[in-house]
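User: What would this chain look like folded?
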Amino acid sequence: MSPDAQEPVLTDDVTPSFDLTTQPWLPVLLRDGVEKDLSLTEVFERADDVRRVPGDLPTQEFALVRLLLAVLYDALDGGPPTREAWAELWQAGPEGFPAEQVVAYLSEHRERFDLLHPERPFFQVADLRTAKDEVFSLDRIVADVPNNDRFLTMRAHGAQRLSFAEAARWVVHTHAWDVSGIKTGAVGDPRLKAGKVYPQGVGSAGMLGGVLAEGDTLRETLLLNLIPREDDDLLRHDDEDLPVWRRPQPHGAAPLPEPEAGPYGPRGLYTWPARRVRLHHDGREAYGVVLAYGDPLPYRNMHGCEPMTGWRRSAQQEKKLRTSPVYLPRTHDPARAAWRGLASLITGYPPEAAQSAAGRGAAQGLTPRVLEWLGRMAEESDALGRDHLLGVRVLGCEYGTQQSVVADVVDDSLSLSVALLSQQGSRLRDTAVRAVQLAETAVWLLGNLAAGLAEAAGAEQATPRAEARDRGFGELEGPFLRWLAALRSGADTGERLESWRRTAYDRVRALGTELVESAGEAAWEGRVRPTAKGGTYWLNSASVERGFHTELRRRVLAPEDDGPPPGPAGDAPPPSRPEEPTP
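Assistant: Here's the prediction, encoded as structure tokens.
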């Protein structure tokens, strides 16, 4: 970008302005591979030329796409009225995308998108201040500045100054993903105690296991996540639902009363002012910030407003509130690849909850409503087609130390046919979930093999087991994603499952052979080990390998044994996270 692209626009009275509708600030990856920054207006005008809005972090991309969705929802007065209207938008291609309608909307509300507006700066509070008029480092809103660990980062000296384009992105990200912890209080906040406000929770998306339906272009991605008003059983569309820039009064330091704040639907939720922010600048760049808590967001039972996460029932909250059911967002585990959590995405509950879900009234979990809606469209409309290949992106944050720091960021994806999401796709879903269970079983046995070899050599077992499992899942990930993408409507599910059995068996068996060959002489010689009944037996690499091959054949290849891997006493632990017994 040219240097003058970041210059603020000066009005006649020399008041600085940075108009997000006309100034380039959104980082995009075009279909031809070129990266550049576009304004809000340009992003919608070129939505079919844009592949993604990558952002500075994956979580920033999630926040920016939700911002774009809020604009689109509001420009369309809450979204397409019916599925037929949505189908027309989808089938019309680039020419049918309502870019002109969105551009007119942005022009109408242009003043509300000025990052430096003297009275209503975008996503900020103009007069936000602390009792001592402190101005803090921009590190407070820049999430990729490591906490007390500035090695291997592009910001080893912190975020001292930011262009207005970059500052705008981090302001949006802050409302969505900011950490919790004790914060300096702002004058006028009734929660203020001795100059501080005690933890009020993370940003509006911080407790979500974010799920984004992705298409080949930004136009497709926005439409895939745009649920029509007709489907109000999946997503609430109230007349009171407004994005933050259309609220009648500017925010002050104090939070709005919960009934007044909402949320009433996706427009308000996707632009939820979870923080109070004020950028300090010199007319050319931002150099400091005041950051305080904003409106708290109640996460309980918000599945009618928040379609971009899965949900789980919380027995603890049900007991505490004496009501049932109570659903909380289902978060992502950074240690687990997206494909291993497939059951939660397409059925609403992990495999281990399947039996407990039966006969208990309310479901134990809910799929992300955006995926449920796409399954409904695949079943009831020809617009998508039953075998449309959908990209599913999972994004999220793992927080540490009482949610006061970002410990890890989740960013993973997979592709699947929308047929798996439809009501008629239960056999496909069962096949896909069973395939994940088979992979878990095979890798569980591989971990046992590594631990058994270590025990035979008289070595520590935990590390070899963990390393073998990591390698096993890594070896199976690529083949599984290709297998899943090819699982379409009309497929012979038995044949497809058998194909995956053989793939998982062959790949894990080959890894097992490598482990045995590299085990060393000590494992080959082995050692005497006690039995549970007071006897002894000889444990060496040959006996461990023999047991591995026997169990791998029986539990992965045997079609009549489709149960999850057994636990230490013959019990069946959860297939999504099996416990490994000592060999």
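The radius of gyration is 27 Å. If you want, I can go into more detail on any region.
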